[in-house]
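Exercise: predict the fold of this chain.
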Amino acid sequence: MPINAPGTKNPGVKVAEVQLVGPPILGVGTSTAGFVGAVPKDRPEFRRKARLVTGIDQFLKDYVADDPPADDPLPIPDARKSTPLSIAVVGFFLNGGLQCYVVNDTDVEKGLKELEAIDDVSIIAVPGASDAPTYKLLQDQAQRLKDRVAVLDPPPGKADLTKLIVPVTPGPGLRPLTSIWSAFYYPQIKIAAPLKGDGKEPIFVAPSGHVAGVYARVDGLKGVHKAPANEAIFGALDVEHNISDADQNALNPKGVNAIRLFSQGPVVFGARTVQDEADPSVDSSFLYISTRRLTSFIEESLQNGLRFAIFEPNTIPLRQRIARSARGFLDGVWRDGALFGATPDEAYYVRFPDAFNTDDDRAKGRLTIEIGIRVAFPAEFIIIRIGLLLQAANAS
């Protein structure tokens, strides 16, 4: 309390409440998807706009079919025809997605531009697109904004694996270009076609919507640090190309995430970003899509949560408040199992390097915080060492 504050002229003990810690930092959302493509029912009022969709019922009503007549609650009208986008959105919700933005736009570049302005979006896809220009548009936006990742679809049909591991540009490969901001999945999946006109024949479809739903489901159940892999794809019946162990040995190091058919059905069985691990320029820190998403989650949460410090006096108490807020948030991330270390001090640090906080820096209004984190990488390879015992096990 300042010495000249009211009530300080008479002797006695005065109490003043001061803020010793900064506000708690809340984690940002990580599972809102954004989809671009054509829908079965093209309503002019929804055209070329990014609209929030919070469930299958809303999506079907707005983008697929008109409300059924009262005397026919389960019609399949002509409007109820499937498109890659409609199948992807339904697959997203079936697999655990809670909300997404839909842009009814056949112009991919303009559609993605609509999603660019929405900060909540953290996963983007153009369902069914497997051409080089679309791959580039998706990857460029993810890399430029650094708050989202792109889920990329494979070409339809049974691909030549020797081409699948070669970048699409300059050709003649089928794999997207290297990017730590995207993940590429192969092959397509078979579904029961709930939106197809006859509603009977299963069809093969692009997996991006279903995979984005897996991302959301894993985020909600285990956290963004858990790799969205070894997870069943709900609603999928089969895969278009049955991947063997030998096939995956060739695909995985090149950043092609396999969708495998196991006893429980189709399973996402890869967690890589689009990188060739043999390339010396590869950023191995972000070999896994979960590492990229976790780091983005931490960065954006800290960016939002430390906004309280802007324009505050650049003093030691401010540094202490910032450190307490940041450590409080990172403690929670560590307790969730996202960071490696037996104690918080082993898992992360928060400091203010003198080299970046000189008097000249302070005079220019700059305060630099350095935060280091030890990410818990996925246990992609479980190695079991077995030896034959020549004596009792308890004596070995």
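Check your answer against the key: The first strand starts at residue 33 and ends at 37.
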